[in-house]
């Protein structure tokens, strides 16, 4: 269910074209990228940290104009994948591509913006200094006042980073991903630690960027965030892509239904993925609710108040994750 856009005070980010030298064009696509519209790719990528297999044969294409949500439990490999996409780490095997070339290429990296999961901005620097310093690394940049307004940081230009609240620091960290007028932005859990209002403000800013043609890859633990923002969801578990498609389709892939009924002891029923009890109310999670109801009737067990509901994305995702055992 899409989150409705609140009446925000966001302004459209305008681009200052102070330096449109050759570098401005260098982050744009190669022939391959122009043909396929693929801005970033992972091809059969594996990444190990010692004994830990963080990514296990991941292939993923990010197309121009997409807003992709990476969803997965703690330790699934989401941050590792983002770090590979942005060239902070290299794959153990397989290939990463950014704008048709290597993410290790600094010129290509000028076309992206990144907010890592954790940022440690120097506490003694002022907001405007951090924004200007970051902007100086890009051939084009967003006007500082418009950027800060879009991220709810107006009036804080002269404030030292150490004097910002936790939420303001996080919003600044996210704003910095946009300062270089990127084509593609990677946001690793952008709204962690924000209250509801600040989170919605950030959603609006991300939506505005996307509406203007920007491409976004974000990870989130907030499922409502993925549902509210992303068009495409990639479910990652145990270092693998478990599902990839439009949100509705991913829910369909899981196909999980919640069959609730009031009753006593139930016999062993095939096709039940999970059973939950709340007093005498029993919830059965299944991919085939019709077959389950037929089995219940055939088993001749007394039950009442039968209810069948689709599951939330969270339930679908937990079910997919639980069904994907890790290879030895
Ligand atoms: N630098 C590292 N050294 C050793 N192991 C690491 C390192 N970074 C990540 N890992 C391990 O790799 C796996 C994937 O971690 P990653 O941070 O990519 O997952 P994640 O999906 O982003 O998790 P979270 O949602 O908790 O941030 C985990 O088992 C993690 O402990």
TrEMBL record:
| Ranges of residues in domain ABC transporter | 40-263
Q: Which SMART domains match?
A: AAA
Entry protein name:
ABC transporter ATP-binding protein
Q: Where in the cell is it found?
A: Cell membrane
Which GO terms label this protein's molecular function in UniProt?
Answer: ATP binding; ATP hydrolysis activity
Q: Check the record and name the InterPro entries matching this protein.
A: AAA+_ATPase, ABC_transporter-like_ATP-bd, ABC_transporter-like_CS, ABC_transporter_ATP-binding, P-loop_NTPase
Name the species this protein comes from: Planobispora siamensis
Q: Which Pfam families match?
A: ABC_tran
Q: Where is the composition biased (Low complexity)?
A: 1-31
Biological processes per GO annotation: response to antibiotic
Q: Which PROSITE patterns does the UniProt entry name for this protein? A: ABC_TRANSPORTER_1, ABC_TRANSPORTER_2
């Amino acid at each position: 269910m899409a989150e409705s856009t609140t009446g925000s005070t966001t302004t459209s980010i305008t681009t200052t074209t102070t330096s449109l030298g050759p570098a401005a064009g260098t982050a744009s696509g190669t022939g391959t990228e122009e043909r396929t519209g693929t801005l970033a790719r992972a091809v059969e990528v594996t990444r190990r940290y010692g004994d830990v297999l963080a990514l296990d044969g991941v292939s993923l294409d990010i197309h121009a104009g997409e807003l992709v949500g990476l969803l997965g439990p703690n330790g699934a490999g989401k941050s590792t994948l983002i770090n590979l996409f942005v060239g902070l780490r290299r794959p153990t095997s397989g290939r990463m591509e950014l704008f048709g070339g290597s993410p290790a290429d600094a010129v290509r990296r000028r076309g992206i913006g990144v907010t890592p999961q954790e940022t440690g901005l120097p506490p003694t620097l002022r907001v405007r200094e951090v924004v200007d310093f970051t902007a100086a690394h890009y051939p084009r940049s967003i006007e500082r006042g418009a950027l800060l307004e879009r991220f709810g940081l107006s009036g804080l230009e002269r404030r030292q980073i150490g004097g910002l609240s936790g939420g303001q620091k996080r919003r600044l960290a996210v704003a910095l991903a946009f300062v270089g007028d990127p084509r593609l932005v990677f946001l690793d859990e952008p709204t962690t630690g924000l209250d509801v209002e600040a989170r919605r403000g950030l959603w609006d800013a991300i939506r505005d960027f996307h509406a203007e043609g920007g491409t976004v890859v974000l990870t989130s633990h907030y499922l409502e965030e993925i549902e509210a923002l992303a068009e495409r969801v990639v479910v990652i578990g145990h270092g693998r892509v478990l599902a990839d498609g439009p949100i509705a389709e991913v829910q369909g892939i899981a196909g999980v239904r919640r069959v609730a009924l009031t009753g006593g002891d139930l016999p062993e029923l095939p096709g039940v993925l999970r059973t939950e009890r709340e007093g005498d109310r029993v919830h059965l999670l299944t991919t085939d609710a019709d077959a389950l109801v037929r089995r219940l009737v055939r088993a001749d067990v007394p039950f009442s108040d039968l209810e069948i509901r689709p599951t939330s994305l969270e339930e679908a995702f937990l079910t997919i994750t639980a069904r994907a055992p890790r290879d030895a």
